[in-house]
Amino acid sequence: MPAGNGVAAFALARLGYLLVETRYLDAAERTLRAAWRSLQEFPHGHCSLLNALDEYLRPPELIILRGDAAEAGVWAATLGAAYNPRRLVFGLPKDAGVLPTGLASKSPPEGDGAILAYVCRGTTCDNPVTSLEALARL
Question: What's the predicted TM-score (pTM) here?
Fold first, then answer.
């Protein structure tokens, strides 16, 4: 059974990177710092905290797809075909309602069937990509 503190720190770190919210990242860091002595003395007894530490120190690659829902599904399936355990793909439809600030800043493209992909590492995102081929090269 994973420890609740480790699961919470992992979820807070992932949420912080996805939403670009430092308050979640700060909470994850505080949890990890509070457990630091235990992690050093008995690391094999704190697997969920070690997973959270790894997530915090090495953020996953986040790909945010904005635009036509059907096209985003095709892009997500193409990206999912290649195994990459440190990549998370999120599709947000063009007409998504109220979004948190970090996601709302990833604006949808103009035109029907169009899609934009934002590749983010940690809290930093590259310029949007407009073609699946260019995204695959990244």
Answer: 0.87
